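Aim 2 progress. For Probable membrane transporter protein, the working sequence is reproduced below.
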Amino acid sequence: MLAPWPPGDLLADPFAGATLLVLAGVVGGLLNTLAGGGSFVILPLLIGLGLSPGVANATSRIGVLANGSAAALTFARDRALHTGLVARMAGPMCAGALLGAWLATRTSDAVLRPVIGGVLIAWALVLVFRPGRMLTPPPEPRPPGVPAFVFATLIGVYGGFLQAGVGFPLIALFVSHLGHDLLRANAAKVALVFVYTSLVVAVFAAAGQIDWPRAGLLAIGMTLGGWLGARLQIRAGAPLVRWAIVVMVGVSGAALLL
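Predicted structure tokens for this construct:
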């Protein structure tokens, strides 16, 4: 059974903690929709608010699910979503994500804590020093083949296990490997994360690792952030996505390295 808001939290005042969670959800949802890396904000905050790494990892998925539903619906209504690409890539992504989530529920906090820290620092290094590779598409789009499905499965395993930063390799796959424009690639990324998260949430819930009160607060903020991010992207187009990625790479990289 999950404990109530513990006295050793980052903010012992429940109202202040709840407000911070909602606001962080807005920021995280906006970042996830425009570029990726919202979990770089959410995971450390949840751990700082008293959750164990495993419960924080699981609880964040409810916010990701709410964020993805709001953003994907907004993209679909404005016909910015490449549904064919999402349908082709959903199978391997979901298979990998279910495996990753299962592994996460069986990983102890003593192991998961350094894994989270190490992965976030590794992402900082990759994104700071090699960000351009994922923004350069080949001359013509190409249909996904075996390599793309293998990459999607591996990305799914990572997303199911940890989630943080999963949008970056997805954008790299859709843009630099498959040749889609940045706007549609980002919309497809959001939709795919929503699809596999709807499955892995059940895995984490069955393991009793979701703190539902905090998850609900996070979901409120991330729903708003997802809708706002999708609207901004549709109005501003690919340049906004490109700049959002560059800024997020720099900010998250500096924060994680410092």
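Residues 14-257 form one domain. This observation will guide construct design in the next reporting period.
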